[in-house]
Structures are given as structure tokens and as C-alpha cells.
Amino acid sequence: MNQRRISKPIQIGKVTVGGGAPIVVQSMTKTDTADVMSTVRQIKELEDCGCELVRVAVPDAEAAQAIKAIKKNISIPLIADIHFDHRLALMALESGCDGLRLNPGNISEPDKVKQVANAAKERGVPIRVGVHAGSLPAKARQAGLPPSPHPNLSIAEQMVEAALKQVRLLEELDFELIKVSVKAFDVPTTIEAYQNIAQKIPYPLHIGVTESGPPRTGIIRSTVGISTLLYEGIGDTIRVSLSAHPREEVIAAYEILKSLNLRQHGPILVSCPSCGRAEVDIVKLAQAVEEKLLKIDKPLKVAVMGCIVNGPGEARDADIGIACGKGRAVLFKKGKKIKTIEEKDFVKVLMDEVGRF
Ligand code: SF4
Fold first, then answer.
1. Does the beta carbon of 310 lie inside 6 Å of ligand 1?
2. pTM as predicted
3. Whose CA is nearest to atom 5 of ligand 1?
């Protein structure tokens, strides 16, 4: 794995992004932001599963004003997602947001960016220059906005160009609390854009594959894109975009980081796929254990294995593991065989041991 690209750290509320800080997991609410109760409830659900930064959509003044009440009831920093109307960014800042996301595809006029940058600077609030392949300046032209000066560039190059343009504008305004993203649905385009911009700016990068779909396919698309970049040392904060409850995004983000040994967060479950040798229903058992482990914070390795081929080896290698046989299993703890348990007690005994660990 490549050494991590060291970026200029920024502070979003209490959370540091970049500069070698642990890679931050973030998500976005799917509620109507103006509905304070529902939004707070969803943010609490995200906090409970380890989300470290949350973004809310700010499509109108009601949403911008709601940030004030939402902030009073949550413990993680809040980022306001702004498109089209820079005045909403100014209102979100007044409401106390900890970060802003601006889309250069729909807010790029220097005077408007300047007003937002000045107000953000006064409050020490960072701005993410969040470029999206779906709202590039070239696409914006179709909506009557100024065209891209380089229409022959690839989509990845156009995204980088759009991001750099706004980054340079912020720098001219003496604003450096910058974070950047260049997301597309197409994974190679996303990777190319991030590789390109990572060499050109010193700022932290928010990485992700946008609109990657429902969990079954979306987690794969996101993992391919995000992991490739992380393996190359690129990325300071990640968001997995899924058509699902945002809790799924946070769980998937941590699994990506855990798979690359970049973060520890809760247990790792080792379970065999099962095959004709298994004498218990490993698929059902693994699902039941996985469900229960979601509520555990401790970083420990748990193994659920189907037979004696690889079972004892993997179970021994885990902090807690079972190697199943016909109707019974051997329980291992820290490499030592502890006892034999009956099939009806598998989940309970395993979870009791996890609780005691
Ligand atoms: S551990 Fe045994 S049951 Fe599980 S996949 Fe391997 S051989 Fe099959």
C-alpha cells in the first residue's frame, strides 16, 4: 500500500480531516432538513453506528434555519450542502454549520464565492469544493450558465479543471480551509480525477463514488473506487453513497477502512462461505452473529467456521471463534480451546464470550 498523501489539515468542528489524521467516515441525511425532529433522529442513528461527520441538504431558507435547532441536539459536526444559491450558504453559516459544501457547477460567480468565503473565514468554517460529474460547467451550459473553456477534455479532466478553478479563486481570496471532491458514477473516471487532482493541490480530499446505487451493487462500486484510491494513499474522508438508510453507508465505509487496516471499528467477522462439508447452517449462523456484532464497539476478530478443514485454524486465529461439526462446535478464545457447545447455544455462547472479552 502506498504511503498516505499528506494533506493540509482542516478542522470541521471537533473533527480533523487530513494531515495524517485517521480517515474520517461521513454520511448524509435523507430526511427533509427542515423537519428538525426527523433529521435529528437520523443523525442520532448515524452517531450510534460511528458516523463522524454528517451532511444535510440545504435546498431552501427553512432548511438553512433548521440547522440551528439540529445542531443543539447532535454531537457530531454538521456540514451544509449548498447548490445554486450562495445566500443559503450565508444563512447556514449564521445557523452555525461546521462545514460547507459548494458545487462549482452551480455556484461559481467570483462575487458570490467571495461573500461565502469571507463569512466562512470569519467563523473558521471550511468549504468543500464538491465537483460532481453530473453538474459540470459543460452540463451547466445547457442550463444557461457559462460554458467550459476546454470542452475537449475528458470528464475527469473537466472535473479537475472545475475544482481547480474554484480552489484558485478561494486562494486568491486568502481562504485556505479547503477540502475537495471530484466524484462521478463511473469508477475509472472517479479514480482518474482524484489521482490527477491529488498531485495538484495540498488540500484534503473527500472521496467517494457518487450515486453508486442500492447496497448490493452500490457497495461494490463504492468499494472498488474508494479502496483503489485509499490503497494509493489518496483520501482523507470517505462517504459511501447508497440508495439506503445512511446507516448502511457508515457500516460499509468502516468495512472498507477495516479491510485495508486503516481504521479499527467494532468487530471483524470471519465466516466461511459454507459448502457440502458443513453440518450446520453456516449462512444463517453467520447472519445471526453479524446482526448481533453490529451493536458491539470493541475491535475484535470473531470467527464462525463450518467444519474441520479450515475451522480450527481460523477459529484459533480469532479472538473468539467456533469451529462447527455435526450439531456441536468447539469454542476457541485467544487461540485456546475452551469448550464444546451445542448447536442451539452457538449464538448465545459466542455473544456471551464477546461480551466478556
Ligand atoms: S470451513 Fe469447511 S464448511 Fe466452511 S467452506 Fe471450508 S470446507 Fe466448507
1. yes
2. 0.91
3. 274
